[in-house]
Amino acid sequence: MSDKPKIVFLDTEFTGEHAATTLVSLGLVTLEGDELYLTFNDYDHNQVTDWLRENVLANIDESKCVSSAEGYASLSRFLSDYSDGQLVYVVSAGLAQDSVLFMELFRYRTPNSEYFHSLHDLPDYLKHYAFIDLNTLFRTVGKSPPSDRAEFSGMAGMNPHDALDDARVVRACFIELCKGEAGKALLSSLSR
Prior knowledge:
The protein is α/β, with parallel strands linked by helices. Helix content is about 35%, strand content about 15%. A 5-stranded mixed sheet has the order 3-2-1-4-5.
């Protein structure tokens, strides 16, 4: 067991800010910098807006898109290998939808199950109720969330609305925030 916590930074792009939204892409970056980028082909094409088409879909290579089931398999392998038997903490760019869409992929863990419930159906390394969103983390360490996270983190020039680039920015913000005492306390609490 390592004293260093296992942390992944998450961002997603999706078809809209509503309960019926569907996942378009997912980016994960570990604390150590390993990355996973998934783009999906089974999002609800009827929900695509001009904004989504111009700002997200125009930058995705459709030949690399996978189904949600295939994406789950890649995600599961990546996280299981990274976990190495430890809890994995997820720090998301957004307050709710990133985490919900991330967890929803785990319904493919038991595809014949009638119901999916994150309390019961997530792998052990994620069953800890400790998902963290970046805006709350900013407030926890006594800072207002910046309007430009990339600039705050020293990563200006990243592609906005690219799930992997945004996950990289989340990681950089987290590292910057953990330089202070409150951030160090958070890291310490995740190492226990």
